[in-house]
Amino acid sequence: MEPPGHSKRKAPRRRDDRVILHFDLDCFYAQCVENQQPSLKTLPLGIRQKGILATCNYVARRRGVGKLTTLAEAKRLCPDLVIVDGEDLSPFRDVSKRLYAVLRSHSWNGKAERLGLDEIFLDVTDIVSYNLELLNRSSLAHSYFCLSRTDPEQGFEFDATSFSGCVHGDTNEADAARGDPLGDTLYMRLLLASHLAKYLRLKIEDEGYTAACGISTNKLLAKLVGNKNKPQNQTTLLALNEDAIFAFMDEHGLRKVPGIGSKVTRILEGFVLEKEIDRDMHSMECSVTAGQVRTHPLIQNPSVLDNLLGGRGSERGLSSKVWRLLHGVDDTEVKPARVVPTQISIEDTYKGLNDVSEIRREMGLITASLLRRMHADLLDEDDSQALTQNPSSSSSSRRWIACPRTIRLTTRPYTAPADGKPYNWARASRSTELPSFVFSQSMTSEQIVGRLVVETLMPLFQKLNPAPKGWNTGLINVCVANMAGPATGQGGGVRDIGVMFRRQDDLLREFRNDHGEGWGDEPGFASDDDDNIWDEHRGQTASQEEGSEQCPLCGHFLPSFAFAAHERFHSMEINGD
Ligand code: DGT
Ligand code: MG
């Protein structure tokens, strides 16, 4: 309820037309370790990183140990705590990718976003709406949830007369508000989503991991409500009107609201309490609730927040964002799953190479890196339930989930900083078809690299640098692009990658997408995973397409109108060097 005298307070507009699930794996690092060493499951277990416990399992939590406790404190609270080193993140990354692939494979619209290693948002609006249409109101208790539009066998039975898992909100009021269960679409969409969430949690459990899940109409509310019942549980936010959403938001400590950081918390807390707040920026503490700010008599609209938060250097739009968050409004979309990079490139820089054997050697090193990267990002294990594109292939083989069709070499002469010359823009590129032996599973990597350098890259280099010597090469970049689906069996052509991913089964594959963890993490190397909408040129040497220009820096073709912006992008890159 609004306090008296606040009739002018205007809440931001909200949209309730989406259904979002938020999954948060329980004590993630600890679960990964427990799965490696199942005997640890019943013991209190902490995972150590840099002198603190990054996390601990729920056995330890019941003994009073918390996340981010110091080792000494944890040992004091629980002397028999088993502590395992968690500095190496690779096993956690692998599990994270695997579980993400499971959830993503159930998305129809591809909106499946990872947050860190153990949180995943899914926008399931389309699946839920589809199933709402299918509901038979005369037998709600024996409903069937379809997981595929085309295959009616994919799905599960459920009872549409009640929610699955926990519900947060005033169910009595909600019951009164809806005379006819099917009459209240929002109620029914949330109910259906709760059953889908349960099904997906069980899918994750089949992989050996438990998770908490929040179900609501936006990312903020789904994430917050999922915390209500942990671990191995789920909560649907049943807030069918604005007041119910305010009531839910208001109880949260300000700092607990995702998107409200320590600085904003400190300012708003100071404003509400009318005193200076002096606190460590990493602290999650806050003695003021979101509700105290939202209903503060002097904060009636975002312009007041503007005065408080809009100082020099503050994030643009911050005050209206905070205003919306306080009201439980979050229109940000669940980002679409990245499946394969549109191109992969590796480059290195040199202080002027002139010797052909040096060029060949460096080209070999770059190509070996590139091949490793292609294997990591584009090859997948061909497991038993593999999408048998080529049923006769050996079961132990690995399968290319996407094949680049073009290889591009870019070089640039060296400019010594001491020369005082402007940055040398003279990058030049040549492309050609990527030879099929690159995808061979019978050749060794060394053989592939050797052939690629001799048969493809050195000839491209000679075309780019026709003079017999004096190249002074300062940069070599090798890039593979124009991703296409893998061959469809013997003699088959390549399929369009877009068509390929439309098949839900294909989405089951883990595409080794390191989204958010950086693709270009090899020191001294660059790797490009930007959406490469202009990389459409095909065939032999790259040539300019009608209405497009080729960037001399990176070889991308882009529409003429986009050229100036693209050039600015490079100049920022260069200035940032
Ligand atoms: P939960 O979700 O409460 O059951 O427990 P966790 O362990 O899954 O915690 P969560 O979801 O906040 O974070 C996922 C993993 O990320 C966690 O297992 C350890 C790691 N992590 C989270 N926050 C920190 C941090 O501040 N420092 C370090 N070193 N690791 C962190
Ligand atoms: Mg977690």
UniProtKB/TrEMBL annotation:
Keywords: Mitochondrion. This is UmuC domain-containing protein. The keyword Mitochondrion applies. One of its GO terms (biological process) is DNA repair. One of its GO terms (cellular component) is mitochondrion. It is found in: Mitochondrion. PANTHER family: DNA POLYMERASE IOTA. SUPFAM superfamilies: DNA/RNA polymerases. Residues 20-261 form the UmuC domain. It holds the Pfam family IMS. Signal peptide: none annotated. One of its GO terms (molecular function) is damaged DNA binding. Residues 514-548 are annotated as: Disordered.
